[in-house]
Amino acid sequence: MAEFIAPLEELIEGFARLPGVGRKSATRYALSVLDMNDDDINAFSDALANAKARIKRCRICGNFTDTDICPVCEDTERSPIICVVEDVRALMSIEKVREYRGRYHVLGGVLSPMNGVGPDQLNIASLLSRITSENIGEVIIATNPTVEGEATAMYLTKLLTPLGVKTSRLAYGIPVGADLEYTDAVTLMRALDGRRELN
Amino acid sequence: MAEFIAPLEELIEGFARLPGVGRKSATRYALSVLDMNDDDINAFSDALANAKARIKRCRICGNFTDTDICPVCEDTERSPIICVVEDVRALMSIEKVREYRGRYHVLGGVLSPMNGVGPDQLNIASLLSRITSENIGEVIIATNPTVEGEATAMYLTKLLTPLGVKTSRLAYGIPVGADLEYTDAVTLMRALDGRRELN
Virtual CA dihedral for A91, A97, A102, A104, nearest 10 degrees? Predict the structure, then answer.
């Protein structure tokens, strides 16, 4: 049995397509499926088959939704601040903190000329139109602190400033619980730059 | 958006049922599905739905198969030695080494009175009948080196010896690449017991 039998092989290949899952983990997952009960397997299989059809993008902000408008945009209690993120993953991370009670806008990526991603490939036009239609007072640009994320933040700032809206960027600094000894020089420099007075 | 939308939640729950997959990894996997192409998703979903129906147990040895008899048992070149393993995972591990060219027998567990697993719950009767029908010369007992695995090995030896078949057990010792300093006392004792003369 140099190779696995076809149905097992197909299942392993499915799992191996997931990010960070190698052949060994995929095999482990595939074998565990054989021990699951039929209802669980069918629910899993259906969720998988229907995910793309059932999960749509919110017409307003680009978040995932199963209706026309996502739960965040439907929430009328949210203050007129927009947090601009690269993808839904970032949106979820911020929501999980339960500190921010504003709205979101999902760009769907960052500017990356090397990969052929220009402003037209991103969800930027609708962001600009939301500023006036939703009477937005501040835009927090929460793209990742990478070269592309920075470039995108600068580009957006240039577009947003003429609209009279305040733009801000997430603070750079030392992550809580980190050790100064192991913090890279750029982060330390940014942490010094952004130092705050103690009252 | 304190919780995820239903179709995403269902998909996350499916992935979270896999061994060693927590909610965070499950979410990552679920989101990655949305970036896959439809053919891959459908193949994955079908493999999942059909796995249990298509993957059967070999009538002879208990290995996984999609036909009546597994590829190992169908291989007439295999020498008349049986390696007894707890489960198919162990069989696969031994096959991967490509050193052993005998047959297998999958017990489907180990004796564990605490969990209500007695000899009748294991695939033992068919092992005994194979000894004569396949003219087996040696049985290698490759249950795991746990209390239950040991007890099962001893039980099998008692059953097999009267049949005039040679029984053996995998060697205990220090794993290759390990450090004596960090090897537990029982393993070291077994390694001393099983020492081999250098020629």
Answer: 0
